Amino acid sequence: MSFTDLFIRRPILSVTLSLLILLTGIAALFALPMRQYPKMESATIVVDTRFPGATQEVMQGFVTTPIAQAIVGRGEKPDR
After folding, report:
1. Cβ contacts of residue 75 below 8 Å, gap of 6+?
2. Which burial class, exposed, middle or buried, applies to 67 when counting CB atoms under 10 A from its CB (0-12, 13-18, 19+)?
3. Is there a domain that residue 39 lies in?
4. Is the domain of 49 the same as that of 80?
5. Which one of 9, 17, 34, 70 is least enclosed by Cβ atoms within 10 Å?
6. pLDDT for 49-63, tens place per residue?
7. Residue 25 lies inside a defined structural domain of this protein
8. Which one is predicted more confidently, 74 or 60?
9. How many distinct structural domains can be found in the chain?
10. Domain that holds residue 59
11. Residue 48 sits in the same domain as residue 73
12. 46 near 64, Cβ under 8 Å?
């Protein structure tokens, strides 16, 4: 007697087992916690730079842009 013969000869057993598996799956679906979006923390970085006598263009080109690129990871990493 093979495994399938049991279910062929006893159709009520196969229907009952199928319903049991279905109900267990539905119960598990509602019992599992689901979040649509994971918790994320946004980081805020504040950098204060001073360059006395420099114009706005010099600050933007030589100070602010390299710092911003290093923070987001696009610039070259400094040697440590």
Report:
1. 66, 69
2. middle
3. no
4. yes
5. 34
6. 888 888 888 888 888
7. yes
8. 60
9. 2
10. 44-80
11. yes
12. no
